[in-house]
Amino acid sequence: MSLIGIVANPASGKDIRRLVAYSSVFDNQEKIRIVRRVLLGLKATGIEHVAFMPDYHGIVEKAMEGVEEEFTAERLQFNAKADQRDSIKAAQLLSEQGASCIITLGGDGTNRVVAIGANQVPILPLSTGTNNVFPYMIEGTVAGLAAGLIGTGKVSKKEGTFQSTRLEVIIENKVVDIAVVDAVVSTDLFVGSRAIWEMDKLKQIFLNRSHPANIGFSSIGGMLNAVSPDEPRGMTLKLGKKGRCVTAPIAPGIVEQVLIEDMNLMRPDENMDITVTPCVVALDGEREVEIKKGQKAAIRLSTNGPFVVDVYQTMAVAMEKKIFQAGSITNAID
């Protein structure tokens, strides 16, 4: 029996950037509706078993109302902490239980921690966060169909997923954390709010993906050079008071001019030094790692990032295989 995991972050889409920028608010009622549509998409592909992360709002339990007869739903058993440790633990358990796919509801930060625990399990990320570069803005029903196609093997992992790169934070030659979009060096050591937005405190930006149509810090690099998440290269930017002026959307509703003193491409397994200490490194938009004065620290691009379901490619392969032309998709033959 194919197992699909669901990690719905009840805290995503609600941080301080609603006050300092113009970010959307994704309330948990909307997340319930999204998950319900995901479940109905999964049902159409023949998925009958899901396992999910427990949360204080009961997002998946409430989404199951009205469709519970169609599914066996397992609430993952662990001591929930109501923080990012829950997403890591849930992903680890789903990997251990042999999940074929993990559907996430959150932003870049949520998917960063899921990627830490997911191992080789493909992630299908749905956007309900602030800076949504890693996840998709896509209808939940279609996401459920795509996850179900991967989960049942009607579309293989090779056909419907790609492996993203990732950024590794290294302190004194030890990997201490990762990012799936950007790592940003700030001299603002105050960590009362984990979100980061003050450009005058930023000194370096490391990216494993960039595009001019992105939002957030990866849009800055995107105005100079586009990098896809499955490409074996990244980018590092040095910010300052002089240099090339780039205008970019650094947050929803916030367009800033940024001065780039230097830009270099990153190659896999190459350490790029963090040149300012003490500092805080924000990973995918949130302060995570404090580097003390005098510590040796670097960012490294790794090709060993998370597997990600390519929804558009998965649905295209299903069309080519005529899976949706077989009357009932649950009876389609690979």
UniProtKB/TrEMBL annotation:
A biological process from GO: NADP+ biosynthetic process
Keywords: Kinase, Transferase
Molecular function GO terms recorded: ATP binding; NAD binding; NAD+ kinase activity
Pfam families xrefs: NAD_kinase
InterPro entries: AcoX-like, AcoX_kinase, ATP-NAD_kinase_N, NAD/diacylglycerol_kinase_sf, NADK
Name of the protein this chain belongs to: Acetoin catabolism protein X, ATP-NAD kinase AcoX
Organism per entry: Desulfotignum phosphitoxidans DSM 13687
